[in-house]
Each structure stands twice: as C-alpha cells, then as structure tokens.
UniProtKB/TrEMBL annotation:
Residues 133-235 form the TonB-dependent receptor plug domain. It comes from Xanthomonas campestris pv. phaseoli. It is a multi-pass membrane protein. GO terms for biological process: siderophore transmembrane transport. This is TonB-dependent outer membrane receptor.
Length: 377
C-alpha cells in the first residue's frame, strides 16, 4: 500500500516538474507580415537542420513560435517558389522578432518600375506583444563587455539593479547578490533552461551556468508572469548554448594576481573619536586602535579561472551536444574591523583558499520539425 502511494506521489511530482519546465521561457518566435496572397508560406530554418514552414493568414500575417534560440534564415514562398529571403535573423528568448516583407512579396504580377530606391533598415528591437520589464544580454555582447564572470554581474546591466546592501553578501558560488528595485536579495529567483535553480534553504542566489556556456541571459525587473513564481524581486533566467552542425571548441585561462591590483585605503574613525571622553563601545574601539577602523590595505586577493567548452553534431541535422566546464581558484586575506578594546589588535585578518567548480552539458535531438527533445545536466 505504502509503495503504491509512493509511486503515485513520484509520478505526480514528475508531471508537475515537467509542467513547470514548459512554463518557463527558453525559446523565441519569429512573426511578421507578408501581404495577402493565396498559396503564400514562410519557411524558417537554422544551421542545425531545424526548419519549420508556416502559412500566411488572410491578413498577410504569419507566426513561427517555440523556436530554439539561434540565427535563422527566413524565406517567403509562393506556390513553392522562393520570393524573398532574409539572412542572419537572431531571435531573443521569450520575445517575438518581427521579420516583415514588402506587400509585393506575396503578389504574383510582374510590374514595370520607373526607379528603384535602396535604403538600409534594421529589424525592430521593440516587442510590443510583451508587458514585462526585461533586459536580454546575448553571448555576443558578453564577449565584448568588461564584466565580472557571474550571472549577478550581468544582471547589474539592467536598470534598477544594484549590489545588495542588506547584509546578504554572497550567493552559493561566492558572487555578490543583486537587489532589484530595492527588494531584498532573498526575494529573487534563478532559472536555468527552464528549471528553477534558486537555493532552497535560504533563497539566496542559485546555480548558474559557466560563463562561456551562456547563450542568453534574461533579466526580469518587473511585470513578469505567474510562471516565474516565488519571487518578489527580480528573475534571472539563463539559457545555455547548444550544439549545431558546426564544431566549436575553446579554452581560456584568466589570471588575476593581487600584485596587479591597486591597494585599498585604510578606513579610520572620525578624527575626534580618539580624544573623546564618551565611554561607549565605538569610542573605546577608536581609542584602542589609534583611530584605525579597518586596515583595508592589508587585504589580498588572487584569482585564476580555467574554462573550456566543446560542441557539435553527433548526427548531422539531428543530434547535437554541448559541454562546458569552469573552475575558479581564489586565495588571499580578508580584513575585518578592529574590535579589541584593550590593545586595538586587528582581529579580522583571515586567510582563505577555495575552489568553485561549474559544469554544463546539453543534448538536443531534432526528432521532427515540430518535436524536439532537450536534455540538460
């Protein structure tokens, strides 16, 4: 009896978990207008063999939804013949990318033109179909921006996001936690490829991807839907890279020695603190330490980051993989404040030495153009 109940409970938990994964945004959409014309369709295809052809409705509109992230070629076809093509269309997670064509693309008549004017135009970056407030940072932007190699450092690019100052300093991997619009760091949520990875014990931080495995990071600062529950602050949604028909691999070592960093300045009490006759704890600390509050110049920090990745096809156009790993070695001296009321000793000098390891694995299987399987580890 108990075993039967356990099996049913496990099955229910799996169903709920699967539903929660599908509820989070890990894909994008391509929409647009073509113009009226019977027999018109739009074909979208990427460099991993994925393709989907959708019809154009009576109003000349089309929608290709739930597309894996990547760069697409969009082609307008009429009765099987190619009419017009757009290359290198990059889609954004959880958003509609508008790719519209001239109304004449759907027409079949031949026209004689007096003149032709060619002008440059870029695709719109405003998605008017969404009501939330979000910032999306892509892998291409991460390669160009001088950022800390953490999800929290990337989140600081969004408006209204600052480093938390409420006493919660670091997440599970050592990164400083952000505050969204004045909320506490414990009110944020973390998602990775649709899974909620927020720390269960205290809601401070969450598991995130190796820096080189981030395809896109979505930062919600307000107005997000119920699918991102259990969050009153902000939401960090990371989408990992996937393999394609093209082999990609690389490795890097980043060395940050303490000797190449500027020394911090010591922090002192107010000048009148030492001579004061007030007999409270703060002034006793000041007199005992000769006015020195924190010897910050004695702090040291050395860090070395090792990272590597590889991705490519297992079966061309069908089965792909992507692997990434990262290890951060940190050592140095942390400096606290002077708290010895007898002789002003600095009781806050602490040596530290630790390693942070992160890895990521993803397998994608294109069963058909409408059925995909993704496995993330």
């Amino acid at each position: 009896m108990n075993r039967s109940i356990q099996k049913r409970a496990l099955a229910l938990a799996l169903v709920v978990a699967m539903g929660s994964v599908h509820a989070q945004s890990t894909t994008g959409s391509i929409v647009g207008s073509v113009g009226q014309g019977s027999g018109t369709s739009v074909l979208v295809e990427n460099n991993s063999g994925f393709s989907r052809e959708v019809p154009v409705d009576a109003r000349g509109r089309y929608t290709a939804g739930n597309l894996p992230l990547g760069t697409y070629k969009v082609t307008v076809k009429r009765e099987g013949a190619v009419v017009e093509t757009r290359e290198n269309v990059a889609i954004t997670v959880g958003a509609n990318t508008d790719v519209s064509f001239a109304a004449s693309a759907a027409g079949s008549g031949v026209q004689t033109l007096d003149s032709v004017t060619v002008s440059a135009a870029s695709l719109t970056t405003i998605d008017v179909s969404s009501v939330d407030t979000r910032t999306v940072v892509t892998a291409e932007q991460l390669q160009q921006l001088p950022l800390g190699r953490t999800a929290e450092a990337i989140a600081l690019l969004a408006p209204g996001v600052v480093v938390n100052s409420g006493g919660f300093d670091n997440g599970p991997l050592g990164g400083s936690l952000p505050s969204f619009g004045g909320s506490a760091a414990s009110e944020n949520a973390y998602y990775l490829n649709g899974f909620n990875t927020t720390t269960i014990s205290n809601n401070l931080g969450g598991l995130t991807l190796p820096y080189g495995a981030i395809d896109q990071q979505e930062i919600f600062t307000g107005g997000y839907g119920a699918q991102y529950g259990r969050a009153n602050g902000g939401v960090i949604n990371q989408i990992g890279k996937r393999g394609t028909n093209e082999w990609k691999f690389g490795a890097a070592v980043i060395w940050e020695p303490n000797g190449l960093k500027a020394n911090q300045r010591d922090i002192y009490w107010r000048p009148d603190s030492q001579g004061s006759t007030i007999n409270n704890a703060a002034y006793r600390y000041a007199r005992a330490a000769n006015g020195l509050y924190q010897p910050a110049s004695e702090a040291e920090a050395n860090q070395t980051t090792y990272s590597a990745y590889v991705g490519g096809p297992i079966i061309q156009d069908k089965l792909f993989f992507f692997l990434a790993a990262e290890q951060v070695n940190s050592d140095g001296v942390r400096v606290g404040t002077n708290r010895d009321t007898d002789n002003g000793r600095t009781g806050g000098l602490t040596d530290y030495d630790y390693k942070q390891k992160r890895w990521y694995a993803k397998v994608d299987w294109n069963i058909t153009d409408n059925h995909l399987i993704e496995v993330t580890g």
